Amino acid sequence: MGNKLIDLQGISKSYGKHMVLDDLNLYIRENEFLTLLGPSGCGKTTTLRIIGGFEKPDKGRVVFDGQDITNLPPNKRHLNTVFQKYALFTHLTIAENIAFGLKIKNKPKAYIDDKIKYALKLVNLDGFENRMADSLSGGQQQRIAIARAIVNEPKVLLLDEPLGALDLKLRQDMQYELIRLKNELGITFVFVTHDQEEALTMSDTIVVMNQGYIQQVGTPEKIYNEPENAFVADFIGDSNIIPGTMIEDELVEFLNAKFKCVDKGFGNNTPVDVVIRPEDVELVAPEKGIIQGTVTHLIFKGVHYEMEVMANGFEWLVQSTKMWPVGTKVGIKVDPFNIQIMNKPESEDEEAVGVDE
What we know:
The protein is built from 9 helices and 20 strands. By secondary structure, it is α+β, with helices and mostly antiparallel strands. The protein has 2 domains: 4-225, Rossmann fold; 238-353, CATH 2.40.50.140. The strands form 4 sheets. A 6-stranded mixed β-sheet has the order 6-7-8-3-9-10, sandwiched between helices. A 5-stranded antiparallel β-sheet has the order 13-12-11-14-20. Helix 3 packs across helix 4 (138-150). The longest helix is centred in the middle third of the chain and has 18 residues, at 168-185. 37% of the residues are buried.
């Protein structure tokens, strides 16, 4: 990926007494697909609006390509925004909708016509020039909104939950479209979503946010496999999060049983949080498990079965391609590599960071 393109430095923003962003620092590289991910109210849309120039930070600077643009209005920035509400002009044709920004810039007609054709081709809507916007389906309107942003040749495309209103199949199609567009156009994408799967599918980099703070920045694999705290582990996919005690290096105790793990450096007899993904819980015959339990729920999910197992007073979530019927007595094993150890939050303030609103 390229050089640093956008640099948010010490951004804080409050509405009245409500602090939305607290000293946020983040940079976005050229040609990166970066996703701001988090629950509603975590500050991700505010961050996007500050990059776009629709909001001003109370403190901090927005630097774009080495230039301070904190006080520039949106139309003077080399970026375009696609909102969840597509905001197409329903009384205009598709061509007029797409050309809107170019006409404001007084581009010649032949140039505009070429651009419209190119943009419609990019979003797989060739030949739609003369249709009216309100005759299109939601997915088609969304693609027109993206085409309208692309023709302005922005360096950065800001996308605020743009797929939120689409049904699942269409959303998945649009995810592939967006990845393809990014690769073809070489534009930097900054994408806001609360949908973990969407973030994991599309991003080069994910920024997990909660309550105005960045919890973790990393690749989808890193965020999923090595979450830095219980909030991230819980927000990205399902997890079993169990309080435990690190007895010594590579040995942790939880639910009154000792498990080998690979983590070191937590000291002796330290309280920790233990995170185990449901696909990493191994169900075996009772006598072969480290602890024993009973299957209490079972759902077939297509690729795998999802089960709940009550063992040592904890309800384990388990995903397996093998089915264990409800009522079966089972043993539980976990490979030491699949046990993640997290520090417990030290203070109430840190604790708050790990709580979903």
